Amino acid sequence: MSELHNQQTGDAAETKGSSTRAYLIAYYAVLVVLLAGAFLPQYRVWGINVWSHKSLFLPLFCFGLGAVLPCLLMPLQMRWRTDISGPSGSTVWLTSGSISAGLIALFYFLRARSFYLGDGYTVLSLLSEEVPLVKKRDLGEALIHVWIKHLSGREGEAGALFSFQAISMGAGVIALALLIWSGWKLFNCGWQRIAFPLITLSGGFSLLYYGYVENYSVFVTTVLAFGVVGLLISTGRISRWWAILPAGLAVLMHVFGAALIPALIYLLFSDSPAGDRIARSDIKTKTLFIILAVVSIAAVFFHFYFKIYYFRFSLIPLVPDRFTVEGYWLFSFKHLLDTLNLLQILLPALAITIVLFIKAGPRSLMQRRDYRFLLIFFAGAFGEIFIFDPKLGMARDWDLFSLVGVPLALFAAWLILDLKIRRTPRFLLIGLITGLGFLVLIPRALNQTDINVGFTWFESYTEMDLTKSMYARSLIHDYYEERGDSVGVDAAIQRYKEDYPCWVANREGLAYKKIGNCDNAIPLFERAISLHPLYAAAYTNLGVCLRDRGMLDSSLAMLQIAAALNPYNATIAKEMGSVFFHKGNLDEAEKHLHDALAIDPDNTDAMTGLVQVYSRQKKTDLYLKYLHRLVLRPDAPMQAFKELAEYYVTQKNWPVAGKLYREAIDRGLDTTYTRILREQAPQLGL
Question: Which of 103, 215, 408, 488 would bridge with 480, disulfide CB 3.0–4.6 Å?
Fold first, then answer.
């Protein structure tokens, strides 16, 4: 009781006994920065300009609302007391239910209507296909979307949109339920249980739950599950082995789930016999272990970095090299600024959290298992998002990197609600942090509900990373075309040519390539690559020209770069199969041609290539299988009909052979060849 009395007394004097000035300074500084950012829509401050692209009313309203919030909270903080029992169970459930209903209503009514962030329109198009493309890197979540689309009974884009939005909002409901459940397990006070989900879901990662169209909502929810399970483990409430389940699910949902491995190892070994033995070892042993671990990791890293193009292109260049685009490398100003923007948009109250952390005493906090877990959790996620390349530009690709927002939000909530940290104005901080969170989150959601505002955001984001946005810029043309704005369409085409001379050079090279003039085409493809070092189409076209010249090794090198840049492209896989076929490596040719068909089951060129491979390998069954598939294609080559018909002639199966020849005649079989057939094989009935 004395401890409770001391706690209540301390909290009663929070405002008097501990200054709130530092928190208020940090809070108002963020508000002012957000207001200033509203007038800088075209600059690389996408983490703070979330109030721009609308009328002046929005930034002024949000700033005014934010400005008066502390004035409303301060009197309440003066009267607020921490009661160890808090509100009664029924009151807590009623309050939590009301908050939950409000959040779910926001998920639904502010669901996205424009899909320019991330790869929204691209993934919509892919899922709309009759046989959707499922990528290995996000296998689990992609399969869930395919399954939900199938269950809905809706086809095309309508079914795809339903799947994405149902899963997005459903993941939000699961995240909310998870936080409410874990809040009851982690805390004893009613007000803590109410505040925990509210603080956490005010984090910027929650935008994924507002009908967001991408393959990351379930993934981030599994990361959140890992975070709350980790807190339960590190505070001794459940067994350490429970951490394996959410970590495994996260890796299944997306390969970025590997960021959880360091925190998982910590949960499994800390405060265990094995962990205690490591902790008791002398400093020399620990140092040797750390050196061996670092050297081993570095050796594996650099092996993959210099040997496997796909891995290399997945990372931001360590130093500027021939593949560096627009000066964007690991410690470039652009990348560092993008990282700060990302952290700010994922936890708008980051400055307040830092102040609280410093006031609470970092050294003492880091002696505790719960805070060490959160730090390692954050470090793993941050380390991953810092080194991996945001292919679309981080302003648009924020969603893939939003997993780092989960440990940030959990850390802020845990720090505020930690009763072991005394003399903290908790009520005020809960209000400030959630207030800032929703003052940023709600305008971001609103921007996605308006197609015109979403398009304006998209245009400004593509300007920040012009080269990375080359393929996405076609959406500008589509936007004006859908509205019947011919002037806008013409302007978009002209702007595209001006912004992307690499595209112009590649098209000019293609014109020469189509007429077989590779001598003129090759310099143009090389120019396109010099202008855009990560231009997959130019590498592909250059590789094909080099193959036609007989320079097979050089051709393969170009196509391997193209495949690393665009790994889910059937044309590139088919061309690589062709090169291996010409090199005489039939096994590799077969593998790449099958890869092409896995991406595009109707790829006629890949089927033709497999027919040639199996013919040379004398695998008759497979040869016939793909010939039969090939002649069913509307664009089947005439040679396929002739080969299959000739096979049935050798088998004296005249009806089938005759049918194939008649189909070939209908498609324009050479008349001289037809006349010879009639003379030499009247059994065909031609």
Answer: 488
Rounded distance between C-alpha atoms, residue 151 and residue 11, angstroms = 53
Residue pair 47/345 in contact (Cβ under 8 Å)? The answer is yes
Q: Using the 8-state DSSP alphabet, how is residue 611 labeled?
A: H
Average pLDDT of the segment spanning 511-525: 94
Beta bridge partners, 57, equal none
Element at 377 (helix H, strand E) = helix 369-387
pLDDT of residue 5: 42
- Provide mean pLDDT across the span 230-248: 96
CA 258 to chain centre: 14
Question: For residue 160, what are its two tokens?
Answer: 């795809």
Provide the CA 352 distance to its chain's centre, in angstroms: 28
pLDDT at 75: 83
How many degrees, rounded to 5, is the angle at CA 416 between CA 410 and CA 420? 115
Q: What is the pLDDT of residues 186-199, one digit of tens each?
A: 998 888 999 999 99
Tokens of 8: 């209540």
Q: For residues 224 and 206, is the Cβ–Cβ distance under 8 A? A: no
Residue 288 to residue 592: CA distance in whole angstroms: 44
What are residue 316's phi and psi, to 5 degrees?
-70, 135
d(CA 471, CA 450): 23
A 10 A CB-CB count for 304 gives 14
Buried b (16+ CB within 10 A) or exposed e, 226-242: bbbbbbbbbeeeeebeb
Residues written for the chain: 686
Start-end of H helices in 483-619 = 486-499, 501-514, 518-531, 536-548, 552-565, 570-583, 586-599, 604-617
Please say if the pLDDT value at position 17 is more than 60. Answer: no
- Percentages helix, strand, coil for the chain (3-state, rounded to 5) are 75, 0, 25
CA distances from 264 to 234, 244, 251, 261 (A): 11, 7, 12, 5
Query: What does DSSP assign to residue 388?
Result: B
β-sheet bridge partners, residue 388 = 315
Which residue in 481, 609, 681 sits closest to 662, CA to CA? Answer: 681
**pLDDT at residue 185 is higher than 50:** yes
pLDDT over 50 at 14, yes or no: no
In angstroms, the CA 673 to CA 681 distance is 12
For 315, phi then psi, to 5°, come to -105, 155
652: exposed, middle or buried (C-beta count within 10 Å: 0-12, 13-18, 19+)?
Answer: exposed
Average pLDDT of the chain to the nearest whole number: 90
Distance between CA atoms of residues 49 and 59, nearest Å: 10
**Integer Cα distance of 661 and 326 in angstroms:** 56
Would you call 659 exposed, middle or buried from its count of C-beta atoms within 10 A (0-12, 13-18, 19+)? middle
> How many helices (H) and strands (E) in the chain?
35, 0
Sign of CA dihedral 116, 573, 632, 669: positive
Alpha-carbon 97 to chain mean position? 31
Contact between 464 and 46 under an 8 Å Cβ cutoff? The reply is yes
